[in-house]
Structures are given as C-alpha cells and as structure tokens.
Amino acid sequence: MELTGLSLSAAAALLRTGAVSSVQLTEAALQRTAAADGTLHAFLHVDAAGAMTQARAADASFAAWRKNPAGGQPAVVAGLPLAIKDVLCVAGLPATAGSRILQGFIPPYDATAISRLRAAGAVFTGKTNTDEFAMGSSTENSGYGPTRNPIDLTRVPGGSSGGSAAAVAARMAYGALGSDTGGSVRQPAALCGLVGLKPTYGLVSRYGLIAYGSSLDQVGPLARTVADVALLLGAIAGHDPLDSTSLNEPVPDYAAALQTKSLSGLRVGVPAEYFAAGMQPEVEQAVRAAIEQLRALGAVPRPVTLPHTAQALPTYYLIAPAEAAANLARFDGVRYGPRSAGSGLWEQVRATRGAGFGAEAKRRIMLGTYALSAGYYDAFYLRAQQARTLIKRDFEAAFKDVDVLACATTPTTAFKLGEKVDDPLTMYLSDVFTLAVNLAGLPAISLPCGLDAGGLPIGLQLIGPVLSEVRLLQVAHAYEQAAGWQAPQLAV
Amino acid sequence: MAISQTEVRYIAELARLQLSEAELAEYALQLSAVLDYAASLNALDLAGVPPTASVLALHTVLRADEARPAMERDALLANAAETAAGCFRVPPVLE
Question: N or C: which end of chain B has fewer CB within 10 A?
Fold first, then answer.
C-alpha cells in the first residue's frame, strides 16, 4: 500500500483499525518530502524529529485505547501528519510568514488552530512556503524562493498558501492548513487539484495567525477530499476567547453531515458576472459542466446577479493594504526578527524595515499608508468601506433566492513561474473570483472539476451564506462523489 | 492619478520604510497604476451607504479581572535582537 496517497479520512480509519501506525504514516510523509521537496520547495522548515515524537505519542494513545476502550478513543485527527502554512505560530518551530523580516523568529506559543490540533494528537511535519505575509497569488513573493507546482514544474502552485497546496498535492502531507484573505486557500487548491475551504469570518480563531488583513483573514484547510476538509474544519473551528472576532456559535459535526447524498431542490445561483470575458474557455466549460452535474443530482440552477462584482478588486486593494500597513507596523526589529544598523532608533527601524520586507509587502504598506493618510482617507479608504457594504448586500440579496452560488475559483489554470511577477495588477486579477467572498465574510469551498488540455486542474467554487459550511460541504461532497475525478498526474 | 516621487518619499517616511532611489521611482509608477484602477470606485453612487469595517457586529469583549498565568518573560524576550535587565533594548530616543 502506498501510504502517502491516502486521503486523511482513509488514513484516520486505518489508524483506528490498527492497520497502520502514525509512525508509518509520518515516516512515509517525511521520506516523500526528503525525495521531492528539493525540487518543489513547498516547505520552509521540516521538523522530522518533532513529528516522529508526536507520531509515537499518537500511537501510544491508540494502543492505550485498544487496551482499555472505556478510556475513550483518540480524536479523529490523532496521528495524522499535517503541513502548516508558515503564517501560523507553532510553538518551538520557526515562523517567518515567508518574510526575511521574521527570519529566525521562533514563537513561544501555538496559534489556537494549532493548539486544538495538538491537543487532538495531530502530527506537524513542517512549515510551508507562502507569499510574504500571505500577500500574493503564486508563492513567488516568498522571501525564501518560490514553490513549484507538482503537476507541472514550470508553473506556480498558486498562493499564497502555495506551499501547503504543493505539499498535499505532491503527497508530502495528507492535509494542511492555509490562510485565506482574498483567495489564498481556494486559489492554490484549485491550481493544485485539491479541496480548499475558506470558513465564515470568525469561525476559526485568528489567534496566532500572523495578521495580514484582520477583517478578511481566515485559517482554512486544504486536503485531497471534501470529507478530509470537513474533518480538519471540525478540529479547528469554534469559539476562542483569545480572538475578539471569534464567533460564539456551536460547531456542527461536519463529517457526519456529509451522509446526505441528494441535492433535490437545492437552488444553485449562477452569477453572470463570474463568467466574465478573459476566462480560459476550458475553465468556463468545466464549471458549466459541473453545474449540469449538480442539476443531474437534483439541484436547480438559476441565474443570479451580483452587480458590484467589478468593484470587488479595487475595494479589496484599498482595504487589505490599509489593514496590512497597520498590521505590519509592528515589525521594527525590536521584539523579533533581525535588526539593521542605523544611528538612533528611527534610522534603525527604517533600515530594518527597508531591508526586511520584500517588494510586494513594501508595495502594500505604501498603498495602505497612502489610502489611510490625511487628505486621502475619505477619497480612498472610506469609499472602499462603503463599496464593501454594497458587495456584501449583493450576496445577501442573492441568498434570498438561492442556497449556494457556483462559479470558477480562478479565471485560468496554473500560470508559468515569472509570468505575472513583474506586473502587480495582472497578478491581482488571479483572485478576481475569490476576493468578494472575503469582503463579505462568507464561507466558500474550491474543489476539482476537471483538467484543461494541458492536464492542469480546474477548480469549482461554491459560495454560501454566513455559517453555511455544512451545506457547502454536502453539495461539494455530492458533486465529488458523482464526478469521480482522479488526482492529476504528478511531475515529481 | 500620478503620484510624484516626493509624495512616495513622504508616504515611505510615514511608514518608516527606507527605500532606494530605484524603489521610489518604481513605487511612484506602480502606486499610480493601482490608484488609477481604484478610482473606478468613484463611479459608484455611495451617498448614504454606511461603511463596513467588519462583517461582524463587533462589540468589546471583556473577561473577569482576575490574575492568571502569563507567558514566561524569558521566552518572550528570546527573539529580541537586544535585551537588558528583562527589557527590550533600543537606542536612546531622547538625547
């Protein structure tokens, strides 16, 4: 049995029966990483020794349970090797957020998403590459070099959670955590042929997530199947007193909810604005075919309109940089990260930030500072916040008539490394179908819906109202089971 | 709208960001392009539309005013470039 190709859910089931051990799963993942990651560069840090210690502890917990079933069985994620995006703090492991300004930083605490997984017995094999501070769509903005797409090594894995996506797609991890501020879980999931979920704003705690755009950021899972994503979401979701924007709502049993197979009567909105000119024709064809598949499962597709879709991109590129400029003010070389020489405190801070931040982080700090500065606040930032209200209202109006929205996750399949890196506006357009969801705080999932002529994966995006994760997972699961897409051929 | 290099220099100063001459020139062009694009929001009629700062109805979260364990000071100082007497050390702010 090729262990590394197992889905998380299958691996979890085998752990429970005792057919495999966490040590076996972890060793297989680490061996695969050692063989493939020199080519892919999905990981910024691999913690083989720590992972093996966690794996042995998980195996001990399964052994104890088998010996004494009354003691309660280990949690569903126990013993499962996961890769963690480097914007999340894992105590004792480096956390750089893909930036040179955090080189050498070792957080003394776990993010809440991590402490929950740790308490449940999960195994962390390493920290994955990301665009600097999660700012980007290709992982090329990492201060430590880009990640390659395991399906085509000349192409990007997407971003900013490109390292997490490449790690799971290349079978170096069974599942991963990413973060999604404007599409950074869904877009790389689409480009690497995976399932990725961006939860409702507030469902997963942001404590210990290195902040980019605080009103937009959410931690989300990437994995091979919808059931895997449901399993991971259940392990990280829920109220956290350490995050003042954490929702205080009960967490449903996402995995159990997948049993519903019929989509009878489900109203699927097809937003005209998301089938825009400039889309790769094969992407549009695959998404329209997926919508027909949903119809065959009993769903009722109908056209809807989201009139302010065109404003989402300019709105996002004022709000997110403004929040980023404020969040990145803390990186001054005083409490963490390298410090540059300079005469006096302010010279030292200016030099530290000038040397530590990469081009895209600087660009967004400048843009955000400009939009927030005296004289421009009303013209840019306030207008963007008002436009955000209109974008949010578009979705609220649409969800009076439909249960979910279906569209493409990205306008094209994976693009070439270097193709867009010198043109920020063109790069920003990669996220044109994902950003509005973050502005409105909604949940959305991306899942595979076919391949283009070059064998590159295409992502179907399903968007739902606030806290509709159960329904999104049900619809995605039903489609996935009916469509039966196989994982794409790997180049490494 | 064209952003001048003088304006870029001013914004960089607000952001405490040391930029090279080449970066100043590049950001003057790129910020102008992005702000031109953002100006498409000017076509919207936003009269009477309230701004959205967060999708949640934010409220102040309070907890009981009780002492509780905090992280170890040494652990929090361990990542600093320079420390002294249990504090972060920086150059003098006042001469």
Answer: C
Torsion of Cα atoms, A117 then A119 then A122 then A124, to 10°: 80
Between CA A160 and CA A176 the distance in angstroms is: 13
Residue range A127-177, pLDDT digits in tens:
999 999 999 999 999 999 999 999 999 999 999 999 999 999 999 999 999
Which pLDDT value is given to residue A423? 82
Residue B59: predicted pLDDT: 80
**A-chain residues near B12 (CB < 8 A):** 366
Does A83 lie in the same domain as A210?
Answer: yes
Say yes or no to pLDDT of A405 above 80.
yes
Q: Which domains does chain B have, with CATH numbers?
A: 5-43 (1.10.20)
Same domain, A379 and A230: no
- Domain edge (last residue) among A333, A367, A385: A385
CATH of residue A237's domain is 3.90.1300.10
pLDDT band at A1 (very low <50, low <70, confident <90, very high): low
Domain membership of residue A220 (yes or no) is: yes
Burial of B65 per CB tally in 10 Å (0-12, 13-18, 19+): exposed
Express each pLDDT in B41-61 by its tens digit: 999 999 999 999 999 887 888
A242 at interface of B, judged by CB pairs closer than 8 A: no
CB atoms inside a 10 Å sphere around CB B62: 7
ipTM, two decimals: 0.95
The CA distance from A70 to the nearest CA of chain B, in Å, is 34
Task: Please tell me which residue of chain B has the smallest CA distance to A108.
Answer: B75
Inter-chain contact A106–B78, Cβ cutoff 8 Å? yes
A74 contacts A58 by C-beta, under 8 angstroms = yes
Please report whether residue A457 resides in a domain.
Answer: no
Instruction: State which of A319, A354, A385 marks the end of a domain.
Output: A385
Q: How far apart are CA A366 and CA A378, in angstroms?
A: 17
The tally of domains found in chain A comes to: 2
Q: With respect to residue A63, please indicate whether it lies within any of the assigned structural domains.
A: yes
